[in-house]
Queue: 3 jobs
Job 1
Amino acid sequence: MDELGDTWVPLIKSWRLNERMYGALTGKSKQMIANEYGEDQLKKWRRGFKILPPPVSSYSLSYPGNDYKRTKYVRDLRISLSETINRSWEARKLQIHRKFPKSESLHTCMKRSIPYYTQRIVPEAVNKGKRVLITSHENAIRGILMHLCEIPEEAMNQLHLPNGLPLVYNVKRKCITLLDDGSGVDPMTKHDFGPAAQYLFRPCELDDDFFDQMEQQALQNQPEEEVEAPPAVQNQTEQAEADDAAPADDAPIEIIEKVAAATRMVEVVEGMTAEEAALVRAQRLSGSPIIEAADEKPVPSQITEGMTAEEAEAARSTRLHQQ
C-alpha cells in the first residue's frame, strides 16, 4: 500500500483468512512428508476436501493457541473446556482458552473463511458498493471461490491458483476475470488453473446494467441524421409563407378593386379616341354595362379613316346614339 500511495485505505485483519492449519505437517517440506508418509498420502492431505492431517500437540509452537497475539485478540471462537482446565491447572490460576484448530482440511478451513465473507465483507463493504481487496492464502481463497463460483466438491482438488495473481470477481454478473498485464499473452494460457478452470471462468451473466451499456454504445455509434419536422410544424411553416405572400389583412379592399378596374380600363381605352375613352370610363364608374367592340365590328380608328371632320363627328354621334 505504501508503493501505491494508498496507506489511508482501511486495512482489516482476521485470523479467519489465514492459511489452512496443516497440524503436525506444519514446517515440513513436501519432500520430507513424501519420504515419511508416501507420495499418495501427501496428495490426499493436500488436495483432499475432508481429509485431516495429523493434529498438532497442544504444547507445540505451531499450535495457534500458543500464539500470544491470537489468545489476546481472538474473541470469535468458543471456549475449549479441556484446554481451559489443563492450562488453569498448570498455571495455578484460571486461564480461559479458546478452541483453536489443531488440524484443518479444506472443508474445515472453508467453515471459517466463508462465514467471514458472507457475514462481514458482504454487508460491510460489498452491499455498500465498495471495492474490496482480499489477500489470503491459496486454501482460504479456494474456499471462497467454491462458494462464489459454485464449484463442486469433487472438482476442488483439481483447482490450482497461481501465487500473486489477482482474480477480479464481478458481483452483479457473477464471473471472474483476470487483469491484463500488458504482455499481450492470454492469461489463460500463461497460467495453469488445473482441470477445474472451467468452473472458475464461466461466462458472465447478462444483467440490466449490461443491456443499458450496450444500448448507450449503440446510440453513440449511430450516425447523426437530419431530424424531420413534425407535420404540425411543417403546416405552420407553409401557412406562414403563404401569409407572407398574400396581402396584409389591413389592406383596403377598395384599393385592390380600383387597381383591377384601372387595369381593365387600360385594356378598353387602348385603340380609342379621347372622347370614346372618356365615355367608357364614365360608364364604368357609374356601373352601366359596357358594350365592347367585337372582333367583327370595325375599330373606331378604322371608321373615321377617309372622312372629313364633319362626317366623322356625325358618324361618332350616330354610333354613340346607337349605344
Note: The longest helix spans residues 106-124.
Job 2
Amino acid sequence: MDLQKVKIGGSSKKAIQQLRAAGYTISSLRFAGYTAAELKEAGYNASLLRAAEYSLMELKAAGYPITALKAAGYTVAEIKNA
C-alpha cells in the first residue's frame, strides 16, 4: 500500500485505519500529510499524536478535549497558553 497515493486519494477514516492495519506508524502518517484532526477521527488518542510530535496547537485545533490533553501530559497552564 503506497502511503502517498492513499493520502492523495482521500483521508477517510477507513483509509487511515487500513494504513494502521498495514503497519504504518503515526509518524509516517504525519510525514505523508495527515492532520491531527484526521487521525483523531480515525481513533488515535492525543497521547499517541503527541508522541509523534504533533504540537499542542494541532491537538487543540483537532478538537481534543482538555481531559485528553491532560492525559497526554500537558499541564493546564500549557493548554490555556496554547
Note: The chain has one domain: 3-81.
Job 3
Amino acid sequence: MKNRGWLAGILFLKGRSSCEHAMHNDQHSHAERIGEQVYGPPDLVVEVISSGTRRLDRGQKFLDYASAGVDEYWLVDPQPQTIEVFALEEGAYTLSGKFGPGEGAHSQMLTGFEVPVDEVFA
C-alpha cells in the first residue's frame, strides 16, 4: 500500500492486534511490542470520521485500503452515531452493515468481534 502519511491507531491482524498509536504516545505501555515486524496489509482498518477527514476517509483511503487488500474497513461516524462495515469482495468494498444506537457492529471476518455502538459514543 502506498504510504500517504496516515497511521492506523489499531491494526487487526489474524490472531493478534498491534496498538501502534498507543506505542508512539506511551512508550512504556507496550514497550515489548516496539520493533515488532508486521508484513502485509491489516485485516481490518477502523477510521473515525471528522468534518476534516470525511472526503478522505470515504474517498482516497477507501480506494487505497481496497487496493492494498485490507479485508474489512469500518467507518465510525460521530455525526449520526453510526458504524459502517465494509467487506472487500473482488477488489472493491461492499457495505455489509450499517449500525446505529442500540445495535452492535460486527465483523464479517473476525468471528465473535462485535462493538456496541452506544459504547463507542458514550
Note: Residues 42-120 form a domain with the tt1808, chain A fold (CATH 3.90.1570.10).
